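Q: Here's a chain of 101 amino acids. Please give me its 3D structure as tokens.
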Amino acid sequence: MVEIPNSELTSKFIPADDADIQDIIEFAHTFDGYKAHGSFEGCAEIANIHRLDTLTNARTCLFFEARRWRHTGEGPDKRDMVYIVEILASIRSFIADAELA
């Protein structure tokens, strides 16, 4: 997947809440949380506390969840999907603010 920098991210790229999980995973991989935070550990620290206070951190959380599913071999359950919808809403909010500016 081709990375999309925050500065080029628009609402058209963000999957709907009810999108197929594969579409959400593909979107998650348009961002590299490891690179953004300098390491796996830096990325995990942000993701494991569900830090959605910036666009970068929200995208980090989504990226890390997608990586977690890949490495565990399990897809998201209902509780995970509630969190994914929260992350997507957060990303949409940051993008909407930027698009209005």
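Q: Can you summarize the key feature?
A: Residues 10 and 99 are 8 Å apart (CA to CA).
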